[in-house]
Amino acid sequence: MTAPSQDALSAAVSDLMPMASDIFDRIRAASRDHDGVTRPAWSSQDQTAADILFGAARDQGLATWQDAIGNAYAELPGRDPSAPGILSGSHLDSVARGGNFDGLAGAVAAVVALAAMHRAGLTPGCRLTAMGIRCEESVWFGIAYVGARLAVGAMGRAEFDRLVRLDSGRSITAHMQDLSLAADDIWNQGPVISPANTKAFLELHIEQGPLLEEQNTPLAVATAIRGNLRHGDGVCHGAYQHSAATPRRLRQDSVLAVTELLQGLEALWHEIEDGEDPSAVFTVGKLFTDPDHHALTKVPGVCHFSLNFGSTEQATLDRAGAAIAALSEDIGQRRRVRFVLGEAVGSSPTPLDPGLRARLRESASRLAIPVREFATVGHDASIFARAGIPAAMVLVRNGEGSHNPHEKMAMADFELGTQVLAATMATISGAAGG
What we know:
With 434 residues, this protein is α+β, with helices and mostly antiparallel strands. Helices cover 38% and strands 22% of the residues. A hairpin with a 2-residue loop joins strand 1 and strand 2. The longest helix has 22 residues, at 314-335.
């Protein structure tokens, strides 16, 4: 792409920022829930988000369509209609009472990038597509990336038919039918997206941690997507006993047993993070006893908890799994309690494409935009990468984390991220003026 073309594209992205702000505001208003937003998967709220965003895409001269499961698309044709295209986007759903930018920022950025290219008079060498993806968040059906997995053919009919939305108790098919989606059509066609028709996937997403804020940098290029090892519903069974009458040697204290397990796993985290794997993270998202048995004078007999290790290295996840098994066995025997961890679930680490990462860094350098590099958490990009489509990500600074109503993505930072995204799409597609 020539310098005049880059200048025209950059100007067009800037000109479209009021449109982007309006899209964010309208979707926030349509999905407001107390001080946050709630956009369940396959609901009137995420459908309204798709309608608003892709209605704006049509207003900018882009062709739009929707697949059988409700993933929404906008397209800018390329000079060679038969060439594999470039795809960009992110998810439209949110967690309950979450923030407005998690996922949505990437879908809006993709539409803005295509609209800017069209406005700047640039024609890409291949088709460019913006995508609004359904159901990335695991809170709705108990698993993540449902829309992306269905789009690339990475989910079978049996698994699909078992999916029930956790807030409603209704099947995924019922929720699709509410939106007049013909769910059976999913199984009558091949994958909508494949390496045969898509040569790259780029996703912009708000950063979900504090690193960019700490480093006073607006953007990052993600190096990899962490995998994870999770026990979501662990229980330690001890015995309810009188606190004043039971000496330590005879106690079966579930809380102290769980805290010893957690201390051992935190020590392991420190060792791994300080040594071979600085990407490692460990979280205990749930830790509670039964309120029906709460008493100041009672030894707690049951304690519930969750365990979540994340890393870009499979060896770290394997090591964590072995440590969980060994520690729970040892502590259980010594303290005379019983750990029931349930089946471990999770995902494998996903490296992101080095070539695409380099292109994103080069675009940022040409635009004089500083960027960092570090690993990120689970995103739809991992599904496309596992399907054989090279994938990369741009992360945008966000001061208050995500999955909460207080996300603080500045529109100035969003514009910088969209500039990098648009420039990279233009470059790798061979976009030219005239």
